[in-house]
């Protein structure tokens, strides 16, 4: 941290130098950003692993304060690129020292039109540490330390950390699910005022900055971060609306298999009662992933073995561990780390495969310069979900696996369809409506709850019991509180459906497609989503027909599930 501060000061001196020094200065900035990211990733891992450690939180906060200087330099650099003439800019991107950095430099140049003057951007970067980032850190601390009561199958009431919520509300015992769901929501309701204040502060600050940056819509930055056009986003959700009958039918089918008329929110991710099922241990689950990867994609299989052998994953549940899961990495070490809480279910196994997919994406790009590896979430989620599909297909197509194991995977596939086509669209549309109303003033707790229930009823239709919704979802979902990324949810659905299209190509063309797939991954950091899909698949993702075809293809695994359960 001390060395980063010294190097940051030296870099600031170079920015005042001659234009002929720019290429060298950019390379030094690239190196400095990679080292800042490395330290930030490490501190994030420590805080996720143990939210009770005050010193971890203090070090992370200090690191974010130090990073403000880097944000200021980047803003000033972007403004300089925006003001440069075409001749000067072209000579810069053609400099031999900046090979493969052109896309990112052009992106910075384009974004300069939405920047304030240098002094204002510097102030905004500094204030964000004590504003947006501070609210985000507060939420992280709250969620890591929050505990709730639930009744276990023996009738005993236990107090557990919030990180256990997901596993408890997705287990097979409905009484446990209901108890954990209502117990955790009671805990969140007690802190709703804090969550409400945080979200209003996050959105209010962003609206103020957008206005001063002459950005006419709050989705502009989200689309820029995701590297998609608004037309692409519109096409995606138009397709979801046109095909709602499929995910609703899947949810209704699963609900009936549970012996219920309608689902409660805590039933969405619960396993249906399948014959001859048993819990899946960490060892068995990772072995399933290994075998599936080895058979279909040997390169990914070898990498997965390395992840396990080198213990790049924290999977054990424990007190103080934050909820959720993620994969993070470093441009310094060219290594990844995976964080999740494993519960003995196929859903947890699938989550593991998902995170390894992220890590594989980084491995494929390891020989590229850092400025060519900054891919958006929309394309990152494609790699992770592609890995999930490999796992599912590997088990379902293998005669060595029992019908019970296949049913578990097919049911897991069905759960993912419900998540990506019903649940995540609710999150996106809730957040969109919240931001629209926040422009007019503070949005109250009751209004947030109303918006959430309205969105859930509209998206799920009659499949969800009207008295078993989740009005506090906006409290419990950490994605709404992430400081650096706006609208964190829609990239998951985008990436899922894009991966479905990629996987369809793989199934049609065989292992020969894997070279094209890795090219897709390699280019993901140096093209827009529209460009990389056009080059790798020859498809237009601004046409809703592309997304409709992907959604309709999901009927196949659902049909297999129905057939095995008939």
Structure description:
The chain has 566 residues and is mostly helical. It has a domain at 2-130: Butyryl-CoA Dehydrogenase, subunit A, domain 3. It is built from 25 helices and five strands. It has helices at 2-14, 22-49, 54-83, 86-93, 102-111, 118-130, 132-145, 165-168, 174-190, 192-212, 219-226, 230-242, 245-257, 282-296, 298-309, 346-364, 377-396, 403-438, 445-460, 473-476, 490-509, 513-523, 529-537, 544-552, 555-565, and strands spanning 147-151, 157-161, 313-314, 326-329, 336-339. The strands form two sheets. A three-stranded mixed sheet has the order 3-5-4, with helices on both faces. It has a two-stranded antiparallel ribbon with strand order 1-2. Strand 1 (147-151) and strand 2 form a beta hairpin. Helix 1 (2-14) runs antiparallel to helix 2, helix 18 crosses helix 25 (555-565) and helix 22 runs antiparallel to helix 23. The longest helix is centred in the last third of the chain and has 36 residues, at 403-438. The termini are far apart. The model has no long low-confidence stretch (mean pLDDT 90).
């Amino acid at each position: 941290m001390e060395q980063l501060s010294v190097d940051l000061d030296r870099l600031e001196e170079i920015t005042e130098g001659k234009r002929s020094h720019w290429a060298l200065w950019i390379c030094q900035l690239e190196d400095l950003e990679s080292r800042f990211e490395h330290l930030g990733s490490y501190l994030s891992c420590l805080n996720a692993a143990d939210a009770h450690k005050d010193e971890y939180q203090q070090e992370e906060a200090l690191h974010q304060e130090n990073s403000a200087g880097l944000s200021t330099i980047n803003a000033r650099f972007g403004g300089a690129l925006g003001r440069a003439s075409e001749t000067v800019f072209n000579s810069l991107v053609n400099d031999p020292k900046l090979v493969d950095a052109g896309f990112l430099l052009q992106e910075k140049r384009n974004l300069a039109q939405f920047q304030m003057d240098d002094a204002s951007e510097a102030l905004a970067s500094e204030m964000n540490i004590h504003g947006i980032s501070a609210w985000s850190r507060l939420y992280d601390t709250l969620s890591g330390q929050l505990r709730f009561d639930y009744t276990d199958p023996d009738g005993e009431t236990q107090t557990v950390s919030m990180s256990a919520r997901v596993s408890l509300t997705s287990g097979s015992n409905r009484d446990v699910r209901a108890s954990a769901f209502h117990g955790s929501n009671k805990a969140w309701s007690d802190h709703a005022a804090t969550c409400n204040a945080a979200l209003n502060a996050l959105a209010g600050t962003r609206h103020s900055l957008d206005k001063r940056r002459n950005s006419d819509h709050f989705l502009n930055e989200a689309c820029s971060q995701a590297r998609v056009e608004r037309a692409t986003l519109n096409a995606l959700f138009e397709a979801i609306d046109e095909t709602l009958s499929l995910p609703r039918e899947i949810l209704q089918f699963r609900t009936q298999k549970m012996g219920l008329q309608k689902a409660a929110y805590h039933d969405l991710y619960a396993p249906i009662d399948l014959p001859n099922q048993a819990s899946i241990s960490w060892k068995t689950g990772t072995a399933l992933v290994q075998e599936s990867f080895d058979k279909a994609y040997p390169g990914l299989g070898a990498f997965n073995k390395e992840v396990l052998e080198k213990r790049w994953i924290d999977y054990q549940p424990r007190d103080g561990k934050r909820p959720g899961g993620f994969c993070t990495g470093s441009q310094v070490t060219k290594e990844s780390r995976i964080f999740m809480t494993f519960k003995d279910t196929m859903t947890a196994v699938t989550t593991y495969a998902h995170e390894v997919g992220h890590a594989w994406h980084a491995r494929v790009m390891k020989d590229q310069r850092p400025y060519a590896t900054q891919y958006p979430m929309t394309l990152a989620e494609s790699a992770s979900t592609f890995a999930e599909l490999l796992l599912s297909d590997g088990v379902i197509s293998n005669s060595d696996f029992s019908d019970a194991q296949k049913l578990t995977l097919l049911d897991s596939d069905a759960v993912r369809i419900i998540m990506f086509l019903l649940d995540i669209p609710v999150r996106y549309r809730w957040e969109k409506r919240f931001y629209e109303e926040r422009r007019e003033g503070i949005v109250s707790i009751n209004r947030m709850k109303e918006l959430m229930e309205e969105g859930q009823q509209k998206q799920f239709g009659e499949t969800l019991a009207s008295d078993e919704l989740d009005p506090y979802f906006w409290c419990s979902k950490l994605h709404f509180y992430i400081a650096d990324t706006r609208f964190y949810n829609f990239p998951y659905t985008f990436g899922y459906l894009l991966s479905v299209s990629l996987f369809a190509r793989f199934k049609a063309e065989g292992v020969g497609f894997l070279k094209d797939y890795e090219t897709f991954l390699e280019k993901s950091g140096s093209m827009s989503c529209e460009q990389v899909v056009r080059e790798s698949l020859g498809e237009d993702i601004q046409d809703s027909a592309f997304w409709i075809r992907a959604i309709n293809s999901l009927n196949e695994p659902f049909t297999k599930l129905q057939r095995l359960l008939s």
